[in-house]
Design a protein that fits this description.
Blueprint (H helix, E strand, L loop, with lengths): L3 H7 L3 H11 L3 E3 L3 H5 L3 H13 L3 E6 L2 E6 L2 H10 L8 H17 L4 E7 L10 H10 L2 E5 L23 H13 L4 E5 L9 H11 L3 E6 L7 H9 L4 E5 L5 H8 L4 H12 L6 E7 L7 H12 L6 E7 L4 H5 L1 H4 L3 H17 L4 E4 L3 H4 L12 E9 L2 E5 L1 H4 L2 E2 L16 E2 H7 L15
Parallel strand pairs: 5-6, 6-7, 7-8, 8-9, 9-10, 10-11
Antiparallel strand pairs: 1-3, 2-3, 4-5, 4-12, 12-13, 14-15
Bound molecules: iron/sulfur cluster.
Length: about 450
Amino acid sequence: MDLSNLQSALQVSDDGLALLVGFLCFREEPRSRLPALARMEEAQVSAALPLLVDAGLVEGTVRDDETWYRLVPIDELARRARSAVPADARERPALDLELERLTEVRELEHRRFINVIGIRERLHAPAPIPAVAEYMRRFYPYLDLRMGTICNFNCVYCLVGSEKKFVRPVQEIEADLALGRRAGLLGVALTGGEPTLHPGLFEVLARCRAHGYERIILVTNGSLLAEARNVDRLLDAGVTTIGISYDTADAKTAHQLWRREAFDAVEAGIENVLTRTGIPLGTIGVVTRATLHQLEDLVRRLGALTRDRGGLYTFNLDFIMPEENAWANREALVPDYREIAQPLRAALDLAAAMELPLTYRGVPPCVLGEDHLDRDMDRFMTIFQIHEDDAGVRYNRNALDLYRTKPASCRACRHFRTCPGVYRSYLHLRGPDALVPVPRRGRSG
Ligand code: SF4
């Protein structure tokens, strides 16, 4: 999300804006937790916080020997920003739009909402490779339904790492399913944590079917699928597609990443799904510093696992999102984009040569080049939220857009309109130097 007009109206530094965005995502927190919550280094917070307090944008209260900080009410923040930009100024409409989006982010906190994965409108982008186009045609859009946070792994990059462990009650899940159907969705993905550990999983599957969901995707670490009868029970209960986390073909690395010796079980789970004819399989691998030189091996292994077997597959590589556990382990795990360009390109070249449906996400074309844009999921998918108010079902993607941004230099890039940018937390950690704008071609850009 571009907040450049807000930044200049409030006259805050890049770090000041980054911290303000962090504050938008939580209510009131003790000083000691701010760096981890805002995904910033301590030195950045130390420099930016006093300036935000002096400017009256953030308030502190001393409690229990520590100062707790929170953002001023969003109306107050908006009033201050607008007071710096006259109503007839050229920048004012853009500032108003930014403030409107931030206000919606803040308001969404008080509402029940669901996350949806949908198809992104394509602007000047090549069509996806056939397997991905078919997968999207069959399964998108779908409700991304979180079942809770409990898990039998404790992955070093987990995005729910520090969250309290909980299982969502079936009634709460039921309300999400109902809202998804009112929004017209026919697909649902059960995610976690680890959804196969939810004690009400089969009841939830029955309710998915009762609501009329035609496509039910189970997104799992795969460890419980090593038992073939578990796969059969899930398919009998209505699961139509299975997605399995599979980061590396190396058992030792997998153990280090997942903090559990489960590599053989996960591979057995993949094999068990592959022997069930007609069940689409997706794998999701998180690309980290620990795995970037193993990507070609992973492609070869995926090729060996699926060789001569029919069916619909997609294999995705997600650049690590520097949040939660991944932020805590950032030095060991989060590569600079310049480290990843060559290994990821080599893996994609190999997949293309092997005709394997490998895709990727989270790496912009200025880093990777343009040879594999037909495998860039950021170009084809979108994540948004749905809630209901008096006007009915409403769509909103502002809260999720907050996670990504583009540095000012991106304005010169020919991908500026289509590129969703990079994770803010990546920029806090590695800075913008790897993002070199791609020159525009003539006037068409
Ligand atoms: S818009 Fe920015 S992040 Fe995206 S490809 Fe261009 S330079 Fe890279």
